[in-house]
User: What shape does this take?
Amino acid sequence: MDQEQITETINHVAELVTAYGLQVVGAVVILIVGWVAAGWASSAANKGLGKIRGMDETLQHFLSTLVRYLVIAVTVVMVLERFGVQTASLIAVLGAAGLAIGLALQGTLSNLAAGVMLLFFRPFKIGDFVDAAGISGTVKVISLFTTEMATPDNVKIIVPNKQLWDTSIKNFSANPTRRVDFLLGVGYGDDIDKAFKVIKDIVDADSRCHKEPEPQIVVGNLGESSVDIIVRVWCDAGDYWGIKFDLTKAFKQTFDKEGIEIPFPQRVVHMVSEGANDA
Assistant: This one.
């Protein structure tokens, strides 16, 4: 190789280095700026979401991380454009791949979407006792895909979020107070006013029963074998089952002591003899 060819080769390499070197430097600058911008955007989104009242920490972290990766994705596309890559075709391919993945994981993505909705709207929170999707239990963990619950007998149940979001939810812990209802049957031969006084004394003696709203004691129905008395008492939500169990026992014991009958279902049968019919 003579001197002229060597010089030509060196010049050609220098031109390539100059041309692509500037592109590489530009790509590196874009990557650095994009990386810094992604971190800044994620931090700003995290702070902004943190100012929203009731925002769940899991959802806050998920959305701020999503913002970070979106900025990084835009940065990568800009870098590829610096090297002449047809990003339109690449984006189309990625879109088609995303659609295929979305169809394959539509059940999982549905749970993710439902998890975001549950964490954002907060129909229940950790520690609440709920009845949803045919399952009753205390909420232990709320994640983006599933919700973990514990039944009253402490059985762990993991429920897909979509199953919870697509059904009605009864939250027994949402309100600070609850009403306890009792249905008491007394005999037709018993003194109703006496029964009312006994019930009122029992309710008034329990400090867990609220004075306001005032306890309600009424005759609800004249049944086949008993006069049905409805008792409605308001209490703190946490005292519901204690009052339910304790007052039920107190009603039975006091009725027995006061001679008030709690009748069981019965029928009175009148026998008519043939002789009486002939007469």
